[in-house]
Design brief:
The chain is mainly alpha-helical. The chain is built from 5 helices and no strands. The protein has one domain. Helix 2 runs antiparallel to helix 5.
């Protein structure tokens, strides 16, 4: 299939709404799975460690908000890829590990700096990093289902 023909097919398919509905459902599923898993990580961390209130990244509201934001950004990026490549799922799955590594940089930075009045340490930052891995794994596995393999 030529590039022009593939782009036309993607545009026609998007106009029908099928991939958009599929991506919406995949995003909702991914958000639910990632949020449940990340809240489980939070609960375990809270049970094992006295997480100071001043360490806001590991508070339930922050966990929910940042998980939803991450999933929404991943879904938006996948939608963007769908308009630019014949194999958005494959491309997305190659990029997610790189995005995961990049997403850990701020956590490493707050750990190294001892931010949040010294509350940023291994006991508080490692659960955050685990949450990044869980959300990325959910996105890697679940979001591409909205864009099944397309033959060329």
């Amino acid at each position: 299939m030529s590039t022009h023909t593939a782009a036309t097919a993607r545009t026609a398919s998007a106009a029908q709404g099928t991939p958009r509905r599929g991506l919406l459902a995949a995003t909702a599923t991914t958000a639910a799975v990632a949020m449940a898993a990340n809240l489980a990580i939070w609960a375990i961390a809270e049970a094992l460690v006295d997480v100071p209130d001043r360490f806001t990244p590991l508070q339930p509201g922050s966990v929910v908000f940042m998980t939803l934001l991450g999933v929404a950004l991943a879904a938006g990026f996948l939608r963007l890829l769908a308009g630019r490549t014949d194999r958005p799922a494959d491309t997305f799955r190659r990029i997610v590990p790189v995005a995961l590594v990049l997403s850990l940089i701020p956590d490493i930075g707050i750990w190294a700096s001892g931010a949040y009045e010294g509350a940023a340490d291994a006991q508080t930052v490692l659960p955050l990093m685990a949450m990044h891995v869980v959300a990325a794994a959910a996105a890697w596995q679940l979001l591409p289902a909205a864009f099944p393999h397309r033959s060329k």
